[in-house]
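Incident review: delayed structure delivery

Summary: a single-chain prediction request sat in the queue longer than the usual turnaround. Root cause was a stuck worker, restarted by the on-call engineer. No data loss occurred. The affected request and its eventual output are reproduced below so the record is complete for anyone auditing the incident later.

Affected input:
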Amino acid sequence: GNGGGAMTLAVTHCPECRKKLQALDSRPHVRYGFPTVKRRRVCKPCNFRISTIELPITIGNDVFLEEEDGA
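Output delivered after worker restart:
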C-alpha cells in the first residue's frame, strides 16, 4: 500500500497524533532562485511543530521526472 516512509509535498496532518496542523504564518520566500512560500505549522494537541517550503508545481514535476528516469 502507500504510507511508510513516503515523502509528501504538503504536510497537513501531524505525524505524531494525526490531528490537522494549523498554519502559524506563511511568508513569501525567495531562496533557491525561485519564489516559494515558507509556512510554519503547529499541532495544538501535542505541540508538534514543523516548517514547510512550498515549491512551484513545475519545479516539483521536474524533480520527480528526473527521479523516475533514473530508476
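Verification: The helical segments are 57-70.
Action items: add queue-age alerting; document worker restart procedure.
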